[in-house]
């Protein structure tokens, strides 16, 4: 550990302000896909630093896609707002109130509101595909995506509306309860809605092909909502069975959606992805691989090549975070204890008790051994942290670079969302 700490001390760049990230942006900006991680879904600095990197990649390196670990329908409302489309939202906070699914704080927060305002301002003087977009990659929004498809087909007078109604009617008996559908469809084959949503996706893809010359994002949105319906149907069936399949369905869906977006923006398109470290850090460099799990970090590298993907992990030594005690429970401001002895976070701390970033790409000689690396989810209890919150990782293989926040603070949910403290 002493040798590791000394090496980090020699290599790390101190972060005293956003300008200290410029060199990192230069290193990352030649890639087609930049993956920005986070060690939790509730830490302010992870969001603000990712925002500063994102702004610089957009302004200086031509990135136009911001794709996040969020539901497509809610993110598409933000996308419409920042592009000046529609009249549903008059300011950033109003657009972010589209995020109604727990955990709402992941995107309905002050930090994302600031970035949303910046994106809106950036786009005001631009047209067409030169505008930056904001999109959701996740798979959870089965019912919301079906609603959006129905609305789109009704609005356009499409003959595909009847197929959408058949898919919607198939799911209707489950009263928007994903677990009930998953249990029923997994054990009673006649309750399966797979055929209906696959046929709907095929029709939506044909629909978008007709609209392709106009670059119609409404048709794009309908296709991706149909893709969500297909993969969510598979996800909720796999979830009730346990094992790695549901995780893999989710990350494969994220990767497929990212690929559709890159193709939508055309030759030379460049994307920024915001997701948890467990998604963007190459799964092959962790114990996930032994469990048969893949993630977007691995899949993107395999699809586009190592040089076209740049992954930046994030972590903190101690501080506070927004999380819930259990799934669906009220959000709370939780104290994050000092990192576990012998962990990556402790080594970063011992190399200097300040924020810093570190280049890992090509440094297997010094950062290529297995070390515990902290991961905090939306459900978090620090009393049991040592038993499940540290992922054995080969850091030089998992990420291309790493940002360390010495003492972090919880993000700020938008007004009207109560936060408890423990």
Automatic annotation (TrEMBL):
One of its GO terms (biological process) is response to antibiotic. Pfam families: Erythro_esteras. CDD domains: Ere-like. Transmembrane segments: none annotated. SUPFAM superfamilies: EreA/ChaN-like. It comes from the Bacteria. This is Erythromycin esterase family protein.
């Amino acid at each position: 550990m002493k040798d590791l700490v000394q090496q980090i001390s020699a290599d790390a760049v101190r972060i005293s302000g956003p300008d200290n990230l410029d060199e990192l942006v230069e290193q990352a900006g030649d890639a087609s896909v930049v993956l920005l991680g986070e060690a939790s879904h509730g830490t302010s600095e992870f969001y603000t630093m990712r925002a500063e990197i994102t702004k610089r990649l957009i302004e200086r390196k031509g990135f136009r896609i911001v794709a996040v670990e969020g539901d497509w329908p809610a993110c598409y409302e933000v996308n419409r707002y920042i592009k000046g489309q529609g009249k549903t939202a008059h300011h950033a906070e109003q657009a972010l109130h589209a995020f109604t699914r727990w955990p709402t704080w992941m995107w309905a927060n002050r930090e994302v509101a600031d970035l949303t305002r910046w994106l809106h301002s950036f786009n005001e003087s631009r047209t067409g595909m030169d505008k930056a977009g904001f999109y959701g990659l996740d798979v959870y929004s089965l019912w919301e995506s079906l609603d959006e498809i129905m609305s789109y087909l009704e609005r356009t007078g499409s003959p595909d509306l009847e197929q959408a109604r058949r898919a919607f009617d198939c799911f209707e008996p489950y009263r928007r309860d994903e677990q009930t559908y998953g249990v029923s469809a997994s054990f009673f084959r006649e309750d399966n809605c797979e055929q209906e949503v696959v046929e709907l996706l095929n029709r939506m893809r044909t629909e978008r092909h007709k609209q392709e010359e106009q670059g119609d994002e409404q048709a794009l949105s309908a296709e991706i909502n149909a893709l969500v319906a297909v993969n969510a149907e598979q996800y909720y069936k796999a979830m009730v069975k346990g094992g790695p399949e549901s995780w893999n369905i989710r990350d494969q869906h994220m990767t497929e959606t990212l690929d559709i977006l890159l193709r939508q923006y055309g030759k030379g398109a460049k994307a920024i992805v915001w997701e948890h470290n467990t998604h963007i850090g190459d799964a092959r460099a962790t114990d996930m691989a032994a469990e048969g799990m893949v993630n977007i970090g691995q899949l993107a590298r395999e699809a586009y090549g190592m040089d076209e993907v740049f992954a930046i992990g994030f972590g903190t030594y101690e501080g506070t975070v927004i999380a819930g005690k259990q799934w669906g429970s009220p959000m709370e401001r939780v104290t994050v204890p000092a990192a576990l002895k012998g962990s990556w976070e402790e080594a970063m701390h011992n190399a200097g008790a300040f924020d810093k970033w570190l280049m890992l790409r090509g440094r297997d000689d010094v950062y290529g051994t297995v070390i515990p690396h902290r991961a905090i989810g939306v459900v978090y209890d620090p009393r049991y942290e040592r038993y499940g919150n540290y992922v054995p990782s080969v850091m030089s293989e998992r990420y291309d670079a790493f940002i360390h926040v010495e003492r972090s603070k919880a993000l700020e949910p938008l007004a009207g969302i109560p936060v408890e403290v423990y």
